[in-house]
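Q: Hi! First time doing this. I have a protein sequence and I read that you can turn it into a structure. Is that right? Here it is:
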Amino acid sequence: MSLQTSRFQGQEVVNSFNIFIDTEKSSLVGDKTSQGDDVKIHFEGQTIEAKDGELIRISLLNFTMFNNTYMVNQNNGRFNLRGTDGTAFNKTLKIEPKNYLNLKDIATSFATAIATELTSQTVANSFTFTVKPDSTTMSATDDRLLDITLTAKNSSNVATNHGLDNLHVQIPESVGDAYCLLGGLRQDDTSDTDFNSLKITFPDDTTVRIQGFFPMQRVTDPYVYLRCNNAQNGLEMSVLSNDRGRYNADIINSDILAKVFKDVEFISYNSATGEEYFMNLQQRKLSNLRLFLTDSKGRKLGRLSSQRDLGTAAGATTTLNDITTFDNNFQSTLGNLYFTAVLRVDIIKMFEPAKLQSVGLKPPGKARESQSVLTWQDYGKPKY
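A: Yes, that's right. Below is the predicted 3D structure, encoded as structure tokens:
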């Protein structure tokens, strides 16, 4: 077999082949524990093995899946509403999980959740509201800052005293990433009950104004992360595998094989060189492979960290509480949450195992040709 020169100097590809992957029906094969977004591949009689002085390198050539997840989901749509109206209340609410065409729609869903909760908690009969951004396009001239004014109404739909003593919107890490959508602040210290992720004021005794500090955005996770349990030589920032808490190290060993950009309908990647995303295996035998998808914090797509066993990332719901409960939990086994990919496996010769790898000593030159003081060196048995 002819040898191909690798982009890694001094390394040679001695064997190479492709693995074509389709996880749509992965729950029907092997040990039947695989899902469309978390597949276990057993090579069985096709075990890949490297010899002495060789290693196995796996590269991603192609990745494709339908984007059957939502821009706003359980990981970025939840927030806490805390306040007092004679009595204290503290409730976790959510922006309705789905795709949003513009920032106005996200602001409206956020305002609706707050208005509904304030109606149940205060003496007001209802709350109406106005929202900004009010543009229905993302390309409009706008500062993209959230600005909501809620007005308390009585049974005659006339402005009335809202009765609120204080109001706080709080978005800690345990709740998710809604602060990014809304242009607010993440709450790191959950013991601070006076903390506000957004600016909240009371212009008068009938209205409440809620404003963002930074521009709003429609998505918080523009990429899907393809991870592999065999990955051993990569590094990552520790925040990419942990959605909350303090981090003991900046950089940790990584199981990320690739990050793939999410478009509106598809999530796809095609390698330009075949060398952008790869991993070198330390073991010499490859008999199984696990590939799974996460967001940028190691969570399963569209699901909380505590919902790793759930099989659905997006779909029909019937409950109205802050934790989304899907009507059907089989999107990743019987539904449309799956991916296809092409992996290239290379057997790389790193060195000749039977040859001395160190450089031999250079014999001394003639004394009369030397331009420096000679020092005596013993190169073995004298010839005299």
